[in-house]
Amino acid sequence: MAEGEPSYIDYEAFLDPEFSPSSFANSLVVATNNATDTPLDLSTPLSRVLFDLQEIDTHIHTLTTKSALPLLTHTRDQTAAAGHILNEAEEQISSVAQGYERLEKEVLRKWETADEARVAAEKSLATVRLARAVARCLTLGRQLEGQIAEVTSRGSGSDGMTPPAPGRDDHRALERAASTIVSLRRMFSATGPGEEGYGLDRVRVARTLKNELVMPAENLVKSRAAQAINRFSMSTVSGGVAGMTQSGYKQARESRARLISAVTILYLLSPLPRNLSAASEFQPELLLSTLQGYMHTAIVSSLNALVKALSVLPNLERTLSELSGKCQDILALEAILGNLRPPSHPLLPTAERNGDRVESQDQDTVPKHNLLQPLLSALDTSSLPSYFWRSLASSLTGRVQEILNRGGVSARTLRSNRDRLKREIRECVLRGSQLPPSILGLEKGRQGTEAGSGNWEREAAVMVSSVGNVLDR
């Protein structure tokens, strides 16, 4: 059918996107039948549809016959164009492939070789670092072994047969050993690839050194330092400030030096929390527990001795003298700790190295940051002697009541001598709350504030009341 030739077929209806075959068939049936007809005549609409299909097929055949040559020409042109494009694309693909091969040869393979060299260099560097760490670890281990031998006096004489000589200045050797242990601990605790000592846990000799030397040495140093604190005493050093002999002064200085070394050692060897953000948050648990144990032992031993002396009054004078001496030791401990600032700790995240700043201050000024404050905070007190007397008094009342409940000669003697007991206990507290003469020349800033007996009247009253109130009932 030629273009513009009229046709009874409504092509626009068939080409409409919303065309519905069911609606079109229904319209044909309704158009060729009456609504009241019982049997529907479907032959007419079916003939109509078939005729329309034949007409459309004829139209398509006519169009394709007339346009065969243009269609074939168009198809040939399209095929030729596609072939030309394909040839050009193959040439470009070939060029790209050749360029990639050249790039792979000149860059990629060289990069792979360079990357292998880089990996080898990194592993070689890690090996060198680990070897240096192992060498330093072994050097420190050898150094620690010599320091421990100096402490324990395991070495023999020059001829190999003489017995070992006693260790000289062993508290200094212990302090040096603690510093060596801290250095080893820092190497063993390395967790980052760039840190010194990273990977030591994979080296057998390092593990052996840690298990067989470092850990036993650390336990030994801790125990020796704890013993030095538990044995600390200044009240036993004879002589006054003016009349102290040279040997007595030397003994006092030696006792103070041993205490400071022990405190420094336990501070350095105290475990560090994992998530410690600042050095000011560090609490030396090992040191604090040892000092608290010293206080607890002093209180318990004093309580037992005093209760025993109250049962046998002839021993009371000697016991009260020992009791005042024990409190003087505690007061001396407080004076030393009050003038002792925390040592520099290499493992703290921001180590406070303010030695130059503190040394530039007036030497008669007590440092604001000292090792006494953490102990006072742990004991929840403002003074160690006050804590000693008040703890002793709190436990003494019940023990005196037990003596009176048992009755007998001890109870009668206590009641008949209660005035003398009160007076002697008060004198004991005031005498024990004074710094021992051996420490007055060694510690600054403590003599004028703590030596006066008037500052301890309240503690004396508490001690007297712990005994007197029970006896006066």
Tally the helices: 17
Intertermini distance: 139 Å
Q: What's the SSE pattern?
A: HHHHHHHHHHHHHHHHH
Low-confidence stretches: 155-168, 239-243, 351-367, 445-454
Roughly what is the average pLDDT, rounded to an integer? 81
Radius of gyration: 50 Å
| Largest sheet report | none
The number of distinct β-strands equals 0
State the helical fraction. Answer: 55-70%
Beta content comes to under 5%
Shape: elongated
Structural class: mainly alpha
Keywords: Golgi apparatus, Membrane
Subcellular location: Golgi apparatus membrane
Membrane topology: Peripheral membrane protein
Domain Conserved oligomeric Golgi complex subunit 5 N-terminal: 12-144
Structural commentary:
It is a single chain. The protein is mainly α. The chain has 17 helices and no strands. Among the domains are: 11-34 and 41-66, no CATH class; 286-348 and 368-473, no CATH class. It is elongated and about 145 Å long. Residues 12-144 form the Conserved oligomeric Golgi complex subunit 5 N-terminal domain. It comes from Aspergillus nanangensis.
Distinctive features:
473 residues, mainly alpha, single chain
Provide the fold topology:
Blueprint lengths: L10 H5 L5 H12 L10 H24 L1 H85 L17 H19 L15 H27 L15 H24 L15 H27 L4 H23 L16 H5 L12 H8 L4 H23 L1 H9 L1 H15 L4 H4 L6 H4 L6 H15 L2
